[in-house]
Amino acid sequence: MRPFSAFVCSLGLAMLPSVAAAQSRIDFVSRQGGTTTAVGRIGLRDCATETWTFSLTVTGTHTGTPTLWLSRGDTCAMTSGDASCVRLTDTALTRTTDRCAGDSCWQFPVTSRRLIDPVTASCDTRGTGATRLFATIDGVVVASPRVLWDTVIPAAPRNVSASYGSESEVRLAWSYPTESTSTADASTDVTDASDATADASDASATDASTADASTATDATVTDAGVASTFETVRRFWVLCDPVTDAGVDAGTNCATGGFSGLNVNDTASLVRFANQCNEGDGGIDTTATGVSLANLAAGQAYRFAVVAEDLAGNRSAATAASSCRAAEAYTDFWERYRQAGGEAKVGCAARPGASREGLWACVALAGLALAARRRR
User: 4-150 has which CATH code?
Assistant: First the structure.
């Protein structure tokens, strides 16, 4: 029997064997139109435009067309009286012959909005859960692994602060809640948002289905199809915006204003502000709750903000630091000496019989000279 583990991703489809005869199975083929092409959790940014493609293989020759069902649980009576398992009628099965010798095979698309909400195909559903596909033909029933989805906006970072670090660095720090309590939508503006309902973590759920499905291992699913545990952050986005408005400079309370045009659900928008931190293309990718910015333009005041992104690609509102900061131009001893009018050139000579202290002084001066050259 072919194992399902070949197509299971730890963050996406939970491993479940086929419930029909050996080799009968539903496999993941592709994802298109969303934020990723890999097997993984469906997020809010995937819902409106994404389509999954699956393949169905049923052992033996079957001339009819299978019926497809979607269920948020591990059970499906596959009758019109089962409100928890909905027949999939808005998709077309295409019979295939590739790598299907002696068996009956089809491919079919399912939209992410349908996988999230089998009944109404709505992107307004908020929660976390799992959906399974069921197919039946000539008395043979095949069940897919679970497709995990998460449409909960993660909590926004809290207490974002900007302070001066060593030399010319600006140090950003923030806190992040370990458990969230709200399901408010992420704003496209910079706010002080702080709470959101948590993302599902990996746990186990065990329910026997009418198709004799075996134990599942993925997000904990309640009767409402929603899991509530701790938020898991994939990354924090660190954003910088040079201050251009009059009357605002380093040290000014500037939690409002700036970040014009920021849309946290538009990756290009986030990257634009992340790149203004001058920490490389795409900005800083971190799960830590603090970073040092060492490449800001000296003397330029900046606003700062942080956005959280979870494992499904859902993003929080942006939380801004309360104060602007400007990277100070760093001046070492040799530079200060020259600025004060010193004219001596870098160099050192020791006459025969010079003391050991004199030699060490030369070494020290050489070090200063090297530091000065590196600063340029």
Answer: 2.60.40.10
